[in-house]
Amino acid sequence: MTSTNPIKGFSKLTKEAKTEWLISNYFEEPDRALQLLKSYWHTDQNIQKLHDEFIENTLTNFYLPFGVAPNFLLNDTLYCLPMAIEESSVVAAMAKAANFWLDKGGFKSEVVSTKKVGHVHFVWRGDDATHLHRFFQSIRDRFFTDTEKITANMRARGGGILDIELIDKTSLEPNYYQIKGTFETCDSMGANFINTILESWASILRDEVLLTQHLNDADREIEVIMCILSNYTPECLVRSEVSCSVDRLVEGSDMSAREFAEKFERAIHVAEIEPYRAVTHNKGIMNGIDSVVIATGNDFRATEACAHAYAARNGRYSSLTHCELVGNDFRFYIEVPLALGTVGGITSLHPMVKFASELLGRPNATELMQIIASAGLAQNFSALRSLTTTGIQKGHMKMHLLNILNQLEATEAEKAMIVNYFKSDVPHYNTVVEVFKRVRGGEVLS
Ligand code: MEV
Fold it and tell me: Which SS3 state, helix, strand or coil, does residue 81 take?
């Protein structure tokens, strides 16, 4: 059922009125729809109010499972990773990788750099770019001094504006220039901080262009297109790796450790050179990254966009992870930009984000970068380990079996019997349905 009536002023209505409008316009069984929405309301009204105020037009909540992967050894600290994700096998795969590397020194990670960037994108119509450069140099200090109030707290924490440059982009777009700011935002992701500064810079630019003596009329025509941070942060970079001698890679399968290492290395190489594979490969990495990013209240869209841009930085989309097999030494590593925050945003508001932070020992942003990069590496290790040995479906379908059984509305007793039945077989959808029908019909599976 779709509505033909547009509505004006929807956001001004009460939650009840919005819900009433919605269910009466879009649902054939409004009572059932209302019940469903209500069943997802939080019983604690304060928490519900918090959720209501995160976004506009909140009607209810949308839950994701929150799971944990224990035994995650990183830089000699044992973590239990919080993960918010709906995909069946991801947490199990993370836990498997954590256990695999636990007695091999675990994950080692280091932050390479923590710079963020933002731009004032503008059009300047003067015909001699040296005028603009001279003008920029004459007002550059004002970009620092006039934003001192905004940057005071960040500077006290060791951050602030690192650099301000004028960039000429006219070879790509007529009259297009940028003021590029480089920032250190310490433990905050920094979007609000950076955007506020950029907007102040735009005002300074507009004011000063009118006041500066040495400019002619054409030089004064500056049009600010927009001011915005960039979610591409190749200089906010973290590396993580695992390593061991090849003989320690003994696998559950028939393969020898050497065969496994070589096949694994080849699989990484395929992802490095073949974009079709690289996208799926990196998607698996993002299963690990996003689930911890979400659990810790960070912006997974920004993380995704940045990681994929970085994966394509050399002109061809490629793998974020790499493998080195030299003699008896196996080394597997990831290099990924991650702009994260442990203060600001919803980090001090969302009860589950606060829980996740406490679970991780209240990491600062650089520690969280290391944790999350390692989570991506671990997830990729598990995926490739399955792909190059048993195949992915064995583990995946085992975890997905409960989803199929829930879809079929199996009882707890039926689920237990069928899960046991598929203990050593890969469950495919049709076979599960067939077995389910037999059990429903009264058959007792041996
Ligand atoms: C599924 O969500 C992720 C994988 O496809 C990743 C991969 O193929 O490497 C298993």
Answer: strand
Domain ranges of the chain: 1-63, 67-112+238-390, 116-230, 395-440
Distance CA 179, CA 208 (A): 14
Active site residue 283: yes
For residue 381, report the distance from its CA to the centre of ligand 1, in Å: 10
Q: Which of 283, 434, 437, 443 is catalytic?
A: 283
CB 383 near ligand 1, within 6 Å: yes
Q: Which residues contact 230 (CB under 8 A, 6 or more apart)?
A: 116, 117, 118, 119
- Say which CATH topology domain 116-230 has: Alpha-Beta Plaits (3.30.70)
In DSSP terms, 183 is beta-bridged to 116, 161
Cβ pair 375, 85 in contact under 8 A: no
pLDDT along the chain (446 residues), means of 10: 83 97 95 97 96 96 97 98 96 97 98 98 94 95 97 98 98 98 97 97 94 83 96 98 95 85 98 98 98 98 98 98 98 98 92 98 98 98 94 80 92 93 88 94 88
Q: Is 388 in the pocket of ligand 1 (CB under 6 A)?
A: no
CATH entry, 67-112+238-390, from 3.60.130.10, 2.60.300.12, 3.10.580.10, 3.90.770.10 = 3.90.770.10
With a 6 A CB cut-off, is 106 part of the ligand 1 pocket?
Answer: no
Stated pTM of the model: 0.92
Let me know if 400 is a catalytic residue.
no
